Structures
1.
Amino acid sequence: MADLTFNKIAGAALATGLVIFGLQNVTSILFEKEPPAKPGYAIAVAESTGGGEAADVIPDWGTVLPKADVAAGQAVSAKCASCHQFDPAGSNSTGPGLFGVEGRKPGSHAGYSYDQAMEDFAAKHATWTYDELYQFLKSPQGYIPGVKMTFAGLKSSQDRINLIAYLHTLGASLPIPPPNPKAAAPAEGATNAVAGNAAAPSNTAAAGGTAPAAANAVQPTPAPETSRQANAH
Ligand code: HEC
C-alpha cells in the first residue's frame, strides 16, 4: 500500500515534470522560431555555395570590362611572367604564349605541347571566354583538375577582372558584350563591398543555385530599356 502511494506520487511528479518540460519546449519553439528563420537560411546558402573552388559570381562583362583598370591588370600579369610571355609573336616558355588568348581555342597555341587535362578541357570548350578565364584564373587546378599550370590562382575578383581587361588589349578576338544592367546590378553592389566575394552569398541565394547557373539564367532575359538606350548611341 505504501509502495503504491509512493508510486502514485512519483508518477504524478514525473508527469508534472514532463508537462512542464513539454510546455517549455513548445513555448521556446513558438517564440524562437519566427525571428531567426530567414537569416538562418541565408547563411546556409552562403556556406554551401560560397566556399567552392570553382563557384564564383560571374560579373557582367559589358559592365565591368570598360570600367576595369588595365594598368593594374598589367601589374597583376607580372605574376604570370615567370611562365608566360605576352608578346605579339606568341613566344612559348614554361607556359604557352598568351597574346591573343581571349577567344582562342584552349590548348591550341602553335608550338606548345599541352598536357592531357588541357586537351580534355579543350574538347569541351570552343574558346577561352571571359567566364572561363575568370574561373580558371581563380583556381587553375580547381577549374581544370590535373592542369600542369602550377599557379595557386588569383583570389581577388577585381585582380582577375583587371587582368582580363589587360589581356583584352593583347590581340583578343573576343568582343566586349553590351552591358546588361539586369546582370550588372549585383556586381555594382559588389564593388561597394570591395570585390566580388561579398556579393557571392546574396547573388547565389537570389538565384537559388550555383554561380554559373545564375549567370546563365540572367543572360537570356530580354534587356530592359536602359540597355537599349546604351546600345543605341
Ligand atoms: C608556374 C608557371 C605558371 C604561372 C605562374 C602561370 N601559368 Fe598559365 N600556364 C602554365 C602552363 C604550364 C600552362 C599549360 C597547361 C597545360 O598544358 O595543361 C598554362 C596555361 C595557361 C592558359 C591556357 C592557355 C592556352 O593556350 O590554352 C592560360 C589562359 C594561362 N595559363 C594564363 C595564365 C595567367 C593569366 C597567369 C598569371 C595570373 C598564369 N597563367 C600563370 C604555367 C603557368
Note: Residues 79-80, 82-84, 94-96, 98, 101, 106-107, 109, 114-115, 117-118, 128, 137, 147-151, 154, 163 surround heme C (CB under 6 Å).
2.
Amino acid sequence: MNQEPAVADAATTESATLRYFNASDAFDDQVQALKRDGAMVVNDLIDARTVDRVLQELQPHFDAIGRQFEDDFNGYATRRLASVLAYSMHAAALIEQPLVLKIMDALLLPHCINYRIGSSTGIQILPGEKAQVLHQDDDIYPVRIPGIDWQVSVMFALNDFTVENGATRVALGSHDSGYTKGCDGETLQAVMSRGSALFYLGAAWHGGGANRSDASRTGVITTYSLGWLRQEVNQYLTVPRERAAQFSRTVQNLLGYRGHGRYLGRFAEDPDGFWLNKH
Ligand SMILES: O=C(O)CCC(=O)C(=O)O
C-alpha cells in the first residue's frame, strides 16, 4: 500500500469540513458530499441492539485470535478479524443495511452489473496504540480511471469514536490527489456515536487514530467493490460455505455467490442453485 507518515490530527481542517447526515436527510446530498469530499458520516445508522449483538459475537474472537495480523501497518495494540461474517451472524445487518446499499448502488452500479464486498474487517484499537499510517484502500488495484471508484468503504462504529480513543483520520478531498502523488497529511477525525457509519471512497487517504484513552475503540470496516474486480479477501475461503448458506440472498450475493453478467465467474454446473449465474 502507498503509505505516508501520520501527522497531527485536527478536529477540523482549514479547507474542509466532514459532513454528518441523518439517514432521513436528502439522499442526493449524502452522495454528493461523499463524492465531493471523499468521506461523510451517517449518524445512528445501526440500532443499539444490533450493535450489542455484533460486539458480543465478535469479542471472544478478538480476544482469541485478534492478534494474528499484528504488523507495522496494522499496529501492535490493535486486534483484527479478517472477515466478520465468519464470526458474527448479526454483522450481516451492517453489511446489507439498506441505506448503505442504496449509496453503493449510486456510486458503484454505474460501472458494474453488481458489486461485492472486498473485505469486512473487525478492528479493535486498544489503549496505547499509535496512529496508523495514512493509506488508500484501493491501491490494491494497480490502475485508476478518473471518475470511477473501484470501491467504497464503510466504517461502522461499534462504540463511540472519539478524538481520544482513535476515531478514524481522513484527509478530505484527498481522493482527487492522484494515484502516486500521496496525501498532504491534513486530516481530521471522524468522531461519531456508536451505531453511526463513516463512508469513504477507496481513493481517500485515511488511517486509524491513536488511542490515548483507557478503553478500546471497536468498529467494522466493510469495503464494497465493483463486481468485475477480484475481491480483496477471498470470501469463499474465509466464510465457510455452510455458514454462507445461512445468510440472506443479498449477503450471499455480496459475498460473491453470483456471477457478473453471463460469463464472468461462471459456474455452469451450479448443482443446488447457490451460485447465481444470472445478474
Ligand atoms: O481503524 C481505523 O479507523 C481505520 C483502519 C484502516 O483504515 C485500515 O486498517 O485499513
Note: Residues 123, 132, 155, 168, 206-208 surround 2-oxoglutaric acid (CB under 6 Å).
3.
Amino acid sequence: MNKKYAVFTMDVEAFADTECLSRAGMEFEQDMLDGLDAYMEILDRHGIKATMFSVCRTALQAKDRILNHLRKGHELALHSYDHRPLCQLTDEEFRSQTKMAKDLLSETFGTEISGYRAPCFGIDDSKLQILRELGFDYDSSHLGFSFARHTMPVGFHGFEQLRKGILRCKDFFEFGLTQDRLFGHDYPISGGGYVRLFNWGIIKAIIKDYILKNDYYVFYLHPFELSKQPIPYLPKLKLYDQYYLNHGIRSYHKKVEWIIQILSRAGYEFVTFKELVQHMKNA
Ligand SMILES: [Zn+2]
C-alpha cells in the first residue's frame, strides 16, 4: 500500500481577482486577505504545512503577511503574475511574465519558487513545457472539470501516471486537483466553490469514500472564502455569481476541519507540494 499524502493549498489572490468580479471589471478596496490568516490559523493548530500559490503582485503587496507564514514553514509558490487567464496570453507573454514573477518572489522572500498554479486552473501542454524550461519542479493546475471557465485542452504528452491525480515527466510533476465521479461526471472535491456550494451531505459522503479508497488528496481555497469581512452586496452581478460569492461562507471553516479529521483518521501525511516532489522522487 502506498503512503497517503494530503496537500492543503490556498490560491492567494485579492478579492477583485475572483473570476466573476474581474470578468465584470469590478475593483475593490478590501483584499480579503485576512482569510489567508484564518486558513493558516486552522492549519497551524493541526501542525499542517501548506502551499500558498500567490499571485505575484498580491504577494508583493502583502509581504509581511506572507513572510509571517513562510517563517512557520509553509511554502510559497506562484499563482501567475497578475491572474490573467493563460488562454489570453501568448506563449512568449506567459514565459516572460512567469519568469519575472518567479525571480521577483524568489528575491523578495528569499525562497525558491518551484511550483505553479494557473489562474482558473487553465493550462495547456506548451505552457507546461515553458514551466519546465523556467526551472519549476511542479504544476498544480489540472482540475479535469470541463464545465469550468478558461480551461484549455491539455494532453500531458510524455507524462506517466504515478497514482490517481499525480503525473510525472522526468523530474517535473503535475499534481492535479482531486475529483471523483458525481452523477456520471468527474467533479472536483478539492475545495473552492465546488465543496462550498454543493449539497454538503452528498459531498461529505463522496469525499469520505474517496479518501478511504485513494492515497492522494488536494484541498484549495481562496482568501475571501474564510475572510471575516462581509462580502459586499453586488446587485449588478448575475444571481449565480452572487450565490457563488456568498453561499456557505460562514460555515466553510467547519468543513475544512472535518476534512482534516477524516484525512488524519485515514492515515494521510500532510505535506507541502515541495515536500511531495521529494517523496515522489524517492518512491
Ligand atoms: Zn486564482
Note: The chain is about 40% helix and 15% strand.
